[in-house]
């Protein structure tokens, strides 16, 4: 008779190698997730098509009707497209986690001397790599339709660092939702419930000056606007203002809150 797999306790995970072991486990599971990209290429293709459609739609359909003083609309638009691409791409972290738990992969992982956080962080790191590839495609499309960034090396470094941090922060939120909702369709719907309003009620696609007073006040201080404004300043070599530190502060705050809660929730589900 087969014996029941004994759950891995935090003590066993720590005994496996403390921080070094957790990092190793994370990299192993990251590689596992990345191997799925060539095996299921349509997922990556569809994720890449999404920002291309948004670039073309806003550039050629809505762009002529939107005034952006001080810069062309394409230059204004691309920061919003890149942040939206990363934010929407982060939804896959929660979807993948929900699918893994539904297929029973978590039960297999729990029988191994593995750090509990590695299951989450490995998938999130893989999604950050995937998002980076999609960002490259989006930038190339933007350049083809008139995007002309004036950033130097420091500006590009700051912009890339910010996008990676956004991917990390939003992936932790999505993973937490994946633990709560438990099925892929529900995770996707639950993420878009908060992502869509934050994205469109922001400076991603239109200046906030055109919004009604109440909405404008909300839009100017919510995380998407602060992040988009900071990224726009990085890419166009403009003064950062308070949005520079504000964008990083928002991301660090999101990670500081959502990551421990998600890890605790995952450990609770894995040991039930």
TrEMBL record:
Keywords: Antibiotic resistance, Cell membrane, Membrane, Transmembrane, Transmembrane helix, Transport. The keyword Repeat does not apply. One of its GO terms (molecular function) is ABC-type transporter activity. The chain crosses the membrane at residues 44-70, 76-98, 128-147, 153-180, 192-208, 242-263. The keyword Membrane applies. It comes from the Bacteria. GO terms for biological process: response to antibiotic. Pfam families: ABC2_membrane. InterPro entries: ABC2_TM, ABC2_TM_bact-type, ABC_2_transport, Nod_factor_ABC_transporter. One of its GO terms (cellular component) is ATP-binding cassette (ABC) transporter complex. It is a multi-pass membrane protein. It is found in: Cell membrane; Membrane. Residues 42-269 form the ABC transmembrane type-2 domain. Belongs to the ABC-2 integral membrane protein family. This is Transport permease protein. It comes from Nocardiopsis aegyptia.
